[in-house]
Amino acid sequence: MHCPFCRxxxxxxxxxxxxxxxLSIRRRRQCPQCGRRFSTIETASLNVIKRSGVIEPFSxxxxxxxxxxxxxxxxxxxxxxxxLAQAVEETVRQTGAAQVDTNDIGLAILGPLRxxxxxxxxRFASVYQAFDSLEDFEGAIAxxxxxxxxxxxxxxxxxx
Length: 160
Hints:
alpha+beta; three-stranded mixed sheet; about 40% helix; about 20% strand; elongated
């Protein structure tokens, strides 16, 4: 780390502390050349590779925005969306990769969204997984019923 005052190419770390959210580290440094002190904040970068090939920084706000559309009219609060976005970011960061595909982010969203609101989950999954037919919806609903311990309806029995 170059000293911002004298541009000496080295510095000594005096103190290190993690931030409240645990995603960054604040380091207090001292330059051995001029003796002045300065602080740095270090964060692990996480980039998203979009379908078009464009690479951009991960954004919790974009996750919330995408999920917010699926949650319109549902009893889901902004706080719920913030918790979901944080869970998604933690899941993606646990992979240890510096770059992640948008597809992987979508997969990371499905689990927490399913736990949060099943209707919003179906809406999001229908777009994200490109449902083409009623059978796709019926399959997703059957999975949800199995998770709840309800038997799937007979083929000629109407869905309720």
